Amino acid sequence: MPPSTPCSDRAEHDGTAALPARTVFARVCEPEDTPFPDTLRSALAGELDAAPHADALGGGPAAVTAWADAQRDRFTALFAEAGREGCEDVLVRRAVLASAPLALVSGAWLQWLSEPGNAEEPVTLRLLAQFASDVGAGHPGASRGDAHLALMRHVRVAAHARPAAALARDRRVADTSFHLPALALTMSRRPGRYRGEIIGLDLCLRAAGLPPPLAGVRELFPDVADWAALDPGRARTPGRPPAVDDAREIAAAFTDATGPAGAASVERGFAWAFAALRRWSEEAYRELDAARDPAFEMAELMRARAREASAYHDRFVLRGRPLKEWLIEARTDPEPFLAALAGSRLVRPGRSGASRLTGELVSENGRMFRVFPDEDLAVIRRWIDALPTEPAERARPRPAAYRPPTLALRTAPTAPDEDGGAPAGPREAYPRLLRRTLTPATRHYALRYVEGWLARSRYGMGRTDPPLPAAPPADGLRPWLLDQHDLHNSEFQEGTDAPLPDRASLIDSTLQLAPLTLIDGAWLAGHTDYQLAATERGQFLFATYWDELGNGEPELNHPLIYRAVLREMGVDLPPTRSPEFAAWPAFRDRSFELPVYWLAIGRFPRTYEPEILGLNLAMELSGVGGSYRRARQALAHHGFSTMFVDVHNTIDNVATGHSAWAADAVDSYLTQLPPTARADAWDRIRTGYRSLNPPSGLRARNAARRARVEASAHV
Predict the structure, then answer these.
(1) Dihedral angle of Cα 79, 80, 84, 86, to the nearest 10 degrees
(2) Is the residue at 30 inside a domain?
């Protein structure tokens, strides 16, 4: 592994900068695509190349499991020793914090391995199934990370735990704990480049199972946490095979499909993860072992608070020096100051209850009232109580205290756009937007396209009577949903005598819908992000996306079902993500306009959350009870399979299906807003709803053009 280096946020003379691992972690938790991961490309290559390769598909997983078992035994023994010393609570707190960066995002490295362009592929479906299990699909707050959050709350160290990026601000967590998850998440943001490596690191981490530092916590608190969820190698539901077995089969399927190059990438990711895991576990052990000595945490506290304190202590003299000088020195080396403090009149060694530092000075009338929170006072008291009462014993030389290393990752300038600038139009944008990774030019194009489409959708909305009411219903959208279903049914019944399309027209319309239907759910692709998929409203959206792709079952995968219908019609299209698909001569250019909007808005799940909620509601409701039934009649009349429309008419139902989930997601979103913000949010939701079928007149298109020009000035 590359050596540890001092961190610096400043640019170096060669145009690069070294970023602390915690900074990288915070930035790659961002769910909207940015160029940042590309700046770490060289650093990642160095990390991956430096790790000694292992046989990821042979003895590697067994070796990792054996190592992890030994490490868990080692940590359990350390906790037992701490229990005999009366300081096991210190180790519990520190073990839970040290494990937090990895455990809070357990499984998140799989978050972008599915994309609209590969959603029909068997390996992708298996990866998505694994990820769905990790996030607890369909249940809010049920991810593996949420299980660790519950543990953090139990031991009261969760102040900076949500969102996960906020953990980088918690200085109780060492940089070494961020290194592995930061790089795993960085790779997750570039799945096209690191697909095999991600599969390899996933296999390694599942083979390792429960993070070793948590073994001692589990011994003490066997019933306060969901330990099965905290072990990424275990299944989440009864009767399912262990997740590590699924990971092993995924790795085998991937290498079978990609050959020696794929196998090498899996082994590379596996070997890197094992090396990073060993290093982190060793540093965590050293930290916990050192924390058994009260002086260790006291030194940490002084380093953390000395800068601030030095501004207020220029008159107090300690051993002939102003306290300010001691504190300035303590920012890097607190040991001399602590030795002087232990012999001062502020401290009674062995008797914190009789010491001014923890009594008079911090009392309600003291000069340091509320300077230290309760947890800091506990550290100070523990240090005082452990001090030898004899000065000679306190003066005895001590071994050098453990200091966690600071790890940094060097950034580098990004390469020029590989796509050669922005797309010329929707047809050219389509294959680029099928990928998770966007170049800056394509990302800017996507933002401009969305802004233009939404401006067109807003045009004239106040002069028409859109289906969504002018204000959100006080009792939620479910009653309105039933009204719309009744309307769809009435329209269907009234049109039963209308002539069905002829065979050629049906085939043509089915073909022109292929660029749209083969990316079913693309507007929700951003909600595969780990931090969004398990939220109160995000779980509805992820569960919908998960359903659209068949819940990991190829026979239920909507794009595959649609392809089967096309083949019955004599149309055998190339793979969706291939250049040949977008260039298929039978497609008309306008058949790519709405699909590109879906693909583009799905890239920005936070920026356009209200609009996505509205679009999702419109999409899931659009065919239920009406047009799906009409389409079924046409397909059956000409002898084609009706499975695609049958599936949608059932799973999109307004009682328990996707349209009901869509309404609940909107209601959940509005409920969590302050009343003063709901009107604006509702307008955006209505715009999103209308964006499924926006006005197409000249003035509406001019509004779109103006919005794209304005957006160009801001992106």
Answers:
(1) 30
(2) no
As a whole number of angstroms, the distance between CA 715 and CA 713 comes to 6
Q: Return the H-helix or E-strand segment holding 322.
A: strand 321-322
Per residue in 27-58, pLDDT (tens digit) is: 999 999 778 888 999 999 999 988 876 444 45
Segment holding 286, helix H or strand E: helix 243-291
CATH at 665? 1.20.910.10
CA-nearest of 178, 101, 94, 207 to 145 is: 101
Residue 665 has, within 13 A of its CA and on its CB side, a CA count of: 35
- 284 lies in the same domain as 301: no
Given 394, 420, 437, the domain boundary residue is: 394
> Does 690 have pLDDT greater than 50?
yes
* CB contact set of 133 (below 8 Å; sequence gap of 6+): 107, 235, 236, 237, 240, 243
Note whether 317 and 286 are same-domain residues. Answer: no
Q: Are residues 278 and 305 in the same domain?
A: no
Q: Are 305 and 196 in a shared domain? A: no
The pair of three-digit structure tokens given for residue 609, joined into one six-digit string: 């959350």
User: Which of 215, 714, 174 has the alpha carbon at shortest distance from 448?
Assistant: 714
Whether the CB-CB separation of 92 and 80 falls below 8 Å is answered with no
Same domain? 251 vs 333: no
Helix (H/G/I), strand (E/B), else coil: 408: strand
Determine contact, residues 352/381, Cβ cutoff 8 Å: yes
The span from the CA of 346 to the CA of 335, in Å, is 17
| 466 — pLDDT class (breaks 50, 70, 90) | low
Tens digits of residue pLDDT in 474-495: 999 999 999 888 888 887 788 7
With contact defined as beta carbons under 8 Å apart, do 696 and 702 qualify?
A: no
Separation between Cα atoms, residue 619 and residue 96, nearest integer Å = 43
pTM, rounded to two decimals: 0.92
584 class by beta-carbon count within 10 Å (0-12 exposed, 13-18 middle, 19+ buried): middle
Residue 623 has pLDDT above 90, yes or no: no
- Same domain? 669 vs 526: yes
> Is residue 437 included in any domain, yes or no?
no
Which tokens hold the place of 570? 């004599």
CA distance 437 to 241: 32
State which residues form the domain around 386: 296-394
Examine residue 446 and state whether it is found in any structural domain, yes or no. Answer: no
Mean per-residue pLDDT of the chain: 91
* Token pair listed for 8: 């610096």
Q: What is the pLDDT of residues 525-573, one digit of tens each?
A: 999 999 999 999 999 999 999 999 999 899 999 999 999 999 999 999 9
Determine, yes or no, domain membership for 606. yes
Element (H, E) at 317: strand 317-318
Q: How many independent structural domains does the chain possess?
A: 3
Q: Provide the angle, in degrees to the nearest 10, between the axes of the packed helices 538-548 and 658-671.
A: 160
Rounded CA gap, 168 and 172, in Å? 10
Q: Does 486 lie in the same domain as 613?
A: yes
What SS3 class is residue 395? coil
**What does the pLDDT read at residue 57?**
47
Q: Which of 292, 309, 327 is the last residue before a domain boundary?
A: 292
Q: How far is CA 344 from the centre of its chain?
A: 50
Left (φ > 0), alpha (ψ -120 to 50) or beta: where does 63 sit? alpha
694 Cβ neighbours under 8 A, 6+ residues apart: 453, 456, 457, 459, 700
Check whether residue 359 and residue 276 sit in a common domain: no
